[in-house]
Amino acid sequence: MPVKNRFAELLPEITEWRHDLHENPEILFDTVRTAQVVEEKLKTFGCDEVVTGLGRTGLVGVIKGKSTASGKVIGLRADMDALPILENTGVDYASKTPGAMHACGHDGHTAMLLGAAKYLAETRNFDGTVVVIFQPAEEGGGGGKEMCDDGMMERFGIQEVYGMHNWPGIPTGQFAIRPGGFFASTDQFEITVRGQGGHAAQPNRTVDPIVTTSSVVSALQSIASRNADPIQQIVVSVCSIESSSKAFNVIPDAVTIRGTIRTMSKETRELAETRLKAIATSTCEAYGAKAEITWIKGYPAMVNSEEQTDFAAEVAREVSGTCDFAEVTMGGEDFAYMLEERPGAYILVGNGDSANVHTPEYNFNDEAIPAGCSWWAGIAERRMPAA
Ligand SMILES: [Zn+2]
Ligand SMILES: [Zn+2]
């Protein structure tokens, strides 16, 4: 099963959809027009059911195979949202909304999954049910979580989920994947160290939050170096230190630090939160100060299931000949929420030698469409083979 001929035929049409989405980017949960376009197409394709309003502006299409005797149900997920970036690609279908841009290629993801849905609804050459999932707000809003919170997995009986992201630097239409932790959790923290300010020349009459904070910042590094399993990836970064005084001769009352912790597993993530709170609280106490800690939960680590990853790689090899082993990335991805609820896998498809995602020069590579669509179709047809 190399690239399916049908997708070579459909390429001009899918490319047209992609360019239309690119021209009309929408941010976070504002994917109203995008969802309407997707809904209309899914209905035209003859999906058995189209359900909107999941995770606010998310939607799904249900496509039943020639038979559903296997009882299998597979979810295929694309993201629809754009980024608040001023486009600088110079393409004739560039964003018509200044300050909004499909700079992460979610226009390509949506178009490819639509292409696969059209083909699957046309052929139905599988024994089971495919649920195509279109989510809003991947870029920081947690749209995937909201769709899960709306009971999507249970409502449609989804047993496995698959996702795909284009990746600059991987040859066009080639694939890369890895089992286990793939994208990092993205929690943030804020710690206010509250002391007692005073005259810089009389430190004995103060509880100095500057000296206390220095110790806290240093001690936080021991989470990565002394607490976490050395085999596990973790990054602890303090990114901002802010004193309540800017003077040269005043010891301030308080200092606030902000930062982020990235991990690749649930265990390391929980450990990091527990240790951060203990270290900040106890260090402050040792200096006579008080710690006020805010833990801002980000996306969980995105962890690929072993079996589904092997299967996804097998399908990728059938489409493109090879499938590379992907490096981990300490960036976040909210498909993580779906993978927390169901086993599944997330794969990268090459965008070729393009500008990086999240830059004004980036553009999704339409030449990756046949490979991407073929992988989606292959996942459904090979995981739920028709009798
Ligand atoms: Zn992105
Ligand atoms: Zn993205």
Task: Write the topology of this structure.
Layout: H1 5-23, H2 32-45, E1 49-54, E2 58-64, E3 73-79, H3 106-123, E4 129-135, H4 143-149, H5 152-155, E5 160-167, E6 175-177, E7 180-183, E8 187-194, E9 198-199, H6 209-227, E10 234-243, E11 250-251, E12 254-263, H7 266-286, E13 290-296, E14 302-304, H8 306-320, E15 323-325, H9 335-341, E16 344-350, H10 369-383
Bound molecules: zinc ion (2 copies).
The site of one zinc ion has 4 residues, from loops.
Shape: elongated
Describe the strand arrangement of the main beta sheet, using strand numbers. Answer: 1-2-4-3-5-16-6-15
Let me know the number of strands.
Answer: 16
Bound molecules: zinc ion
Q: What integer is the average pLDDT?
A: 97
Which series of helices and strands comes N to C? HHEEEHEHHEEEEEHEEEHEEHEHEH
Q: What key attributes describe this structure?
A:
single chain; 36% helix; four-stranded antiparallel beta sheet; binds zinc ion; alpha/beta; eight-stranded mixed beta sheet; 10 helices; 387 residues; 16 strands; elongated
